[in-house]
């Protein structure tokens, strides 16, 4: 077991509980975000559920859809369908449910080890991780630009180390190439079995990928200009991996349009071997908000929200928008999911992970 308590926490998060033969339960809270379940967490837990029914071979590909956002305040149930057990390949379908509704489904294929012809693309030539700053060292330099109540979550220690090759200003980025490189690892993965190594890599594969499509437009999640969310996720595991060592995540976004972004990623071990490939389409919807100041917006809120004190209207800086919180949420010192007023307009959303 790792000595790092954060790594232990993540390993425990992915070590889902078996309820019945093909029914499993995973913890909702404890991932990368506190306001909704991190997509990589659901992918990794679903893959672990499938692995619990396939003990003798490794996953070579998975294809998943995010259907609804998951809430961290409740567990997630994973139902595994044993679609096929073949001589060389095994297929599983996993459905994730929360509050009686599907939030995610995934198909995964597993393959026995076989010999074949080897070929792979070379790893891009970029700055190595040793001279780059860890994300946890970069964020304190910009934390003053968000409301104080979100500082704790923004600076919260995380188990996976991330070092971006060319980090951007998260609040005032310039348009840049869609090519996006970062190094990542989790030292506490040392000694984990091959199934857990794959699940950890799947978890991490959802980090920073969607931002590739934002880069050419000078956008980030910390602005109030875009609503973003993962729509699907595909991953191909080319070889076993050891995620305790540094891996390069080389990402790009060949296309954005129609309020969507198509993003790709290649994951290389530090010695240059292509370990996995990733593809993901994400929502990238422009947010158009009226400039009319409060109280002219009262028409958007039902009287019971304003007159009975059920909600409190707050003005957030620097994102410069109103938000509607319950009194308990607005008094809380720690980040909580924002309870949206039932009649709030459809554009009333942000995907920063801090406010929505």
Q: Any overview of this molecule?
A:
Helices cover 16% and strands 32% of the residues. The protein is α+β, with helices and mostly antiparallel strands. It folds into 2 domains: 285 residues, Porin (Beta Barrel); 70 residues, no CATH class. The strands form 2 sheets. Strands 1, 2, 3, 4, 5, 6, 7, 8, 9, 10, 11, 12 and 13 form a 13-stranded antiparallel beta sheet that branches. It has a two-stranded antiparallel sheet with strand order 14-15. α2 packs antiparallel against α5. The C terminus is likely disordered.
Write the CATH architecture name of the largest domain.
Answer: Beta Barrel
Tell me, briefly, the overall form: globular
Number of domains: 2
Low-confidence parts lasting 5 or more residues at pLDDT below 50? 292-356
CATH class category of the largest domain: Mainly Beta
Helix and strand sequence: HEEHEEEEHHEEHHEEEEEHEEH
**Structure summary, number of beta strands:** 15
CATH fold naming of the largest domain: Porin
Strand percentage lies at 25-35%
Number of helices: 8
Kindly provide the radius of gyration, computed on alpha-carbon positions and rounded to a whole number of angstroms: 21 Å
CATH superfamily of the largest domain: Acyl-CoA thioesterase, double hotdog domain
Structural class: alpha+beta
Helix content: 10-25%
How confident is the prediction overall: mean pLDDT? 83
Summarize the main sheet. 13 strands, antiparallel
Straight-line N-to-C gap: 35 Å
